[in-house]
Amino acid sequence: MGKNSKGETTVSIPITKEMTPNVYINISLLQPHAVTENDLPIRLYGVIPIMVEDKTTILEPQISMPNVLRPEQNITIKVSEKNNKAMTYTVALVDEGLLDLTRFKTPNGWDEFYAREALGVKTWDVFDDVIGAYTEASTKCLKLVAMVLPQKAKRIKPTVLNQLLNF
User: Fold this and answer.
1) % of the chain residues with pLDDT over 70
2) What pTM does this model have?
3) Residue 127 in contact with residue 45, Cβ under 8 Å?
4) Is omega for the bond preceding 21 within 30 degrees of 0, making it cis?
């Protein structure tokens, strides 16, 4: 599945149309338990998205109609798909001046339906499984922290001033 060389691991992942619009790759890197002489993290992990596009889902509507329309005029509008794919459509005629007022930009339906989806799984760290390699170092660290921190925090007593104002 994966190919290793010094400092690099390569993995090939077959991409299928069921993965649209995206999939996530979860990567974990663990140092060997016996390696404690360097100061590199014992574990690293990350999640990255891979965008997947199925070109067969892209529709290219073609509209045939007059460029200029006049009030009370009958018109014929022909709608087709460039590659003769089945599609459902809605035609809306709106005055161009109204669209300019709101800086309306025609939405791209494909971008909306195939937008990136949020990662829908919970992730967790494996810290509890790997901390054993650093038991001695972490124990020393905790003892140092306990010596530095005061046993009881000195708090400032709250003071409230009440004044009666006469007008």
Assistant:
1) 69
2) 0.52
3) no
4) yes
Residue 123: which residues within 8 A CB-CB, separation 6 or more? 26, 45, 47
On the 0-12 / 13-18 / 19+ scale of CB atoms within 10 A, 130 is middle
One-letter amino acid for residue 64 of the chain: S
Tokens, residue 131: 């901390």
Place of tokens 């390696």: 35
Q: Which one, of 26, 28, 25, lies nearest residue 44 by Cα?
A: 28
44-69 pLDDT, tens digit per residue, is 788 888 889 888 888 999 999 998 88
The torsion angles phi and psi of 25, rounded to 5 degrees, stand at -110, 125
